[in-house]
């Protein structure tokens, strides 16, 4: 993959507003797999340096999505001792390792979805916000088990509509509301369930703006609030807070007026005190009593 | 005003999504003033009966807006003893009384705005949600006193944009955000200030959906939360809760999908426990400590 093609793919990752962070991280690994195979470096050292530069660029492109950096750490660990290999073998080893890391991520997401579906159980109404592929997978497992879903639209680009489409295809009865109605509808659900873009050391987590409001409403109405996320989204170092990505304010489609500044911050942190539990690929970590 | 013309005006009131409830109540009184003057009843009894029927229809057209019923109660009290008057005099008395009631309402709103501006003070940043003419009047009084405003858009029809336009004309620095970002921005304000469509007996109040979320966020961030509203919006009878109006789901402009129900409830109740104080035309009623 030449620099021009890479730049185009990097741009796609940066401007993607539809995919969950695990999906995006796996696409980043695919880009690195292709970058390894189609690489004209004359030495393995040069190959590894070039990949490092691209990995850094991919990680920096989505600073709120910790899983990108975490999966690349696993990938880099797996190719740590290959500098002695001839370039052709090194290229193949890099591509294989990237594929292995993708598989690891897919199975973590699937296991997290299994654990989430088991926790939800039959005949429940679940409120969710934004689009999480883990949440969607767990809903799919409950499609014939009496699940009902309430979704907020998730302005500005309304990922909630995309989730509603998927649930419609699964024949799951779904209620679609504006974000402003979250306070009215959280109390009608048996639980609130959301995905995460990053889990912080103290179990606070990063997710699409609006999540904190749903959590406040759940807490006030004594509705359990769960976050489901594989452990690859956990931030390892203490005190580290990922950057809250802001996007172009044109996405709001609001009037352009003198003296008026439009803000479009995509992510926010929901504090641990509002969370009942964190469902990951191993278990349900209880954070607060129901 | 004949029945056809009245029906058209009633329809306008019912479908108005822009005006605050005090504005709408005053327009209802204007309709009754005109209905009084242009009325072909042969007796005063018939005139009063006809007006009663129209008043009931206007009150029922906006069940969440208590001020409509309350101002009509004042109007009806002021014409209680006119059945002995000849029709021509009665018509004039009704129209005059309606105008008097409109003036009363205008001066209450202005006095409430004065008290609100005094409470806010100089160089403050205020977060607000939805469109309230009382809030706007108080902001106008502080336009040259260092006021900054943060507004959420207030989906589905985004009355926040209309407020932003008015503040832009007043040269007031304003930040405009999605409703989902309320949790991120309430904490940047010195206080949250909203209007009300109805004040309940226990000081809970009815306002546009999204208000409860802003109140939860203010409470969690220890930001004072004030509601400004003239006393004519207070519900007199204990335990009475106004209907939460739901509007056409087409307003969301969301995709129409099988198994997916779109909800568009306009109003919600914010509980008294989240409110710092209620600013009315007389004073600031302290509800909870700051």
Topology order of chain A in helix (H) and strand (E) letters: HHHHHEHEHEHEEEHEEEEE
- Please give the number of β-strands of chain A: 11
Shape of chain A: globular
Arithmetic mean of pLDDT of chain A: 95
What is the radius of gyration of chain A?
A: 20 Å
Range of helix content of chain A: 40-55%
What's the story with the biggest beta sheet of chain A? 7 strands, mixed
Structure commentary:
With 290 residues, chain A is of the alpha/beta class. Helices cover 44% and strands 14% of the residues of chain A. Chain A has helices at residues 3-15, 21-37, 44-61, 66-78, 87-120, 133-141, 159-169, 182-185, 211-220; strands at residues 125-129, 148-152, 174-177, 191-194, 198-199, 205-208, 225-228, 260-262, 267-270, 277-279, 284-286. The longest helix of chain A has 34 residues, at 87-120. Strand 3 of chain A pairs parallel with strand 8 (260-262) of chain B.
Helix and strand layout, with pairings?
The structure is a homodimer.
Chain A: H1 3-15, H2 21-37, H3 44-61, H4 66-78, H5 87-120, E1 125-129, H6 133-141, E2 148-152, H7 159-169, E3 174-177, H8 182-185, E4 191-194, E5 198-199, E6 205-208, H9 211-220, E7 225-228, E8 260-262, E9 267-270, E10 277-279, E11 284-286
Parallel strand pairs in A: 1-2, 1-4, 2-3, 4-7, 7-10
Antiparallel strand pairs in A: 5-6, 6-9, 10-11
Helix pairs in contact in A: 1-2, 1-3, 2-3, 2-4, 2-5, 4-5, 5-6
Task: Give a nutshell description of this structure.
Two copies of one chain form a homodimer. Chain A has nine helices and eleven strands.
